[in-house]
Automatic annotation (TrEMBL):
GO terms for molecular function: 3-beta-hydroxysteroid 3-dehydrogenase (NADP+) activity; 5-alpha-androstane-3-beta,17-beta-diol dehydrogenase (NADP+) activity; estradiol 17-beta-dehydrogenase [NAD(P)+] activity. The gene is HSD17B7. Pfam families: adh_short. GO terms for biological process: androgen metabolic process; brain development; cell differentiation; cholesterol biosynthetic process; embryonic organ development; embryonic skeletal system development; estrogen biosynthetic process. This is Hydroxysteroid 17-beta dehydrogenase 7. One of its GO terms (cellular component) is endoplasmic reticulum membrane. InterPro entries: 3KSR/17beta-HSD, NAD(P)-bd_dom_sf, SDR_fam.
Amino acid sequence: MRRVLGGVGLALCRRLLEEDGRIHLCVACRNALKAEATRDAILELHPAAQVSTVEVDLGSLASVLRAAKELRCRFQRLDFVYLNAGIMPNPHVNFKALWKGLLTGKLLHMLTTAEGVMTQTDRLNGDGLQEVFATNLFGHFILIRQLESLLCGNEKPSRLIWTSSSNARESAFSLSDYQHAKGQESYSSSKYATDLTSVVLNRKLNKQVMMGFVHLKRLMNLHPDAV
């Protein structure tokens, strides 16, 4: 479970505690063991930190609703919310596309953006939704809506930051197949849908919440150990 030591989430926690060691961190992880391992890793570096955990699987609506209810019971407000969960199941390199990119002079663009190069095999989750769509987008959206009472209506606006990716591309997304059930670039599609959703949430919540949208590459630069 020590693989969490190199995660972006842990790097964010470290950066926050370096800025203000008095804050109370609540770390959300997919399972209890990973949550405790992450908490232990944070406390190794910041022994006096206040760190609690909550178990939530963003790919399960029941888990999201349960975690949101627990957070509403435990906290009166949330000052910062970082939405960072994401999956890319069964990634494969499309060597045929790479060869075509070499012949057409588009290889550098393809290697930079992963467009047409990195494909995934998605599947349905227990809720009947495409797993990548549910985990990378829908679960986050439901969590935000469930936590609005902790984010809005306060004298000091909360800050909500939703991590996207440089792999987010319009070409991979279609409104007629927004869950990307028919394609092979579900990760890119979900991240572009995240871009669109963040714009809508900004319009809806910007007066009460300071919304933020961060591309993964930029987020990685927050701490030298983030990658």
